[in-house]
């Protein structure tokens, strides 16, 4: 597969998800896949879906890029192992996103709105770059009007890490059991709101997400979707 450049409108939204795939995420790999597939399913019949492109990139000792595809088609392939080269991966993912934005603009004549979301459950380990490298990359995205989002997952890292790097929106997801709900329901809700908004949500990207007390249990929507799992293997 290759990157998508054919959109149904001139209001294009691009999302790059950079997800930690280091060894500490091994026990959560099934949840990541289920959550991302639920995220895709949630966009069925969504009016703006044909003008939304998503790339799933992963990082551990290195970064692994995913093609930008229509939200219904992006790859949810995920595996774990290795260390956490988060500073290096943030910088490289930012470059990858900016290249795609430039290509879309040149091919369509439209300037897309873009969001880069990073999810990690741990601090930098065996990194190839420094904290300042990542900070510079995030600052560059922010100045370009790209929404930067950091999700601190688990209890080994907090949103303060993302704030220190300069992400405009940060959130803590401490309960690892809520990952499917977070990806499939809360993240979907925020992305849909962003796609329908006249301007980028910025710091309010998760303003309408379910609060921490309610996140400790799956929503009825998530539970019902997971019970009807016949669609999972079809994606």
What features would you highlight for this structure?
globular, 7 helices, disordered C terminus, 235 residues, seven-stranded mixed β-sheet, alpha/beta, single chain
How would you describe what is shown here?
The protein has 235 residues and is of the alpha/beta class. The protein is built from seven helices and seven strands; from the N terminus they run βαβββαβαβαβααα. The longest helix has 23 residues, at 86-108. The chain is globular and about 40 Å long.
Topology, number of strands? 7
Instruction: Report on the biggest sheet.
Output: 7 strands, mixed
N- to C-terminal separation?
A: 15 Å
From the alpha-carbon coordinates, what is the Rg to the nearest angstrom?
16 Å
Percentage of residues assigned to helices: 25-40%
The string of secondary-structure elements, in order, is EHEEEHEHEHEHHH
Please give the count of helices: 7
Strand content: 15-25%
Residue-averaged pLDDT, rounded? 90
Q: What shape does the CA trace take?
A: globular
Low-confidence stretches: 210-227, 230-235
Q: Classify the secondary structure makeup into a structural class.
A: alpha/beta
